Amino acid sequence: MASIDSMNALLVDELRDIYDAEKRLTKAIPKLAKKATNDQLRSALEEHLEETEQQVQRLEQVFEHLGETAKAKPCAGMRGIIEEGDEHVGEDYDDDDLRDAVIIGSAQRVEHYEMAAYGTAIAHARLLEHEDVVGLLEETLEEEKAADAKLTEIAESVVNLEAANEEEGEEESSGRRRYPASSARSTAAASGRRAAARRR
Predict the structure, then answer these.
(1) Which of 146, 143, 151, 141 lies closest to 102, judged by CA?
(2) How high is the pLDDT of residue 161?
(3) Mean pLDDT across 118-140
(4) Which of 21, 124, 140, 143 is deepest in the core (most CB within 10 A)?
């Protein structure tokens, strides 16, 4: 194991970890997209796959700016998140909307992990006054935030509602009280607006 003896060496180590994570995702995202049944969700995943491929190239530019070889270091964190996602998505579900809800949760775990990793790398690059590197990493961070927000919107406006309505239908058939879908949609829409306001 190489010794990390400076902030610059730490930054390079972090970037190699992120580089591995992004390359893993170029293989993992297509699997999630294939399992997704909601058109909006599948489209969002496919669009983010294209972004992820560009993010890999952007990291290679970062290494070039730093005079380092674009080399991946196995990212145990992302490997674990992907394995957990594969396990959950592969379980048996009574309804496709439930699986789509799980896919969104798995994808958002990925996004949050990446946001934390990029945020740390940006802070260290800024400290070292690598402004070109900061710019490239910030571009990717904004893409990760946007992908996370889009997944939240799809969950709150469509997927989670459909999954919940399926359960409500079962409850109604068993004589239990069922709340109108329109009421659930209104609640979710209000929740989405509050979340958007918090992000501003």
Answers:
(1) 151
(2) 85
(3) 98
(4) 21
Nearest residue to 107 (alpha-carbon basis) of 57, 150, 157, 69: 150
DSSP letter for 3, please. Answer: -
Q: What is the pLDDT, as a whole number, of residue 117?
A: 98
Tell me which residue has tokens 């609640």: 187
Show contacts of 141-147: CB within 8 Å, 24+ apart. Answer: 141/115, 143/48, 143/51, 143/55, 144/111, 144/114, 144/115, 144/118, 145/111, 145/115, 147/44, 147/48, 147/51, 147/107, 147/111
- Residues 46 and 40 sit within 8 Å (Cβ to Cβ): no
- Per-residue pLDDT tens over the stretch 34-84: 999 999 999 999 999 999 999 999 999 999 999 999 999 999 999 999 999
Burial 4-30 (b: 16+ CB within 10 A, else e): eeeebeebbebbbbbbbbbbbbeebbe
| Residue 98: both structure tokens together | 């439930």
Burial environment of residue 149 by CB neighbours within 10 A (0 to 12, 13 to 18, 19 or more): middle
Whether 24 and 79 have beta carbons less than 8 Å apart is answered as yes
- Residue 17 has, within 13 A of its CA and on its CB side, a CA count of 17
The confidence score (pLDDT) of residue 188 equals: 45
Of 38, 34, 59, the residue nearest 133 (C-alpha): 59
Q: What is the pTM of this model?
A: 0.81
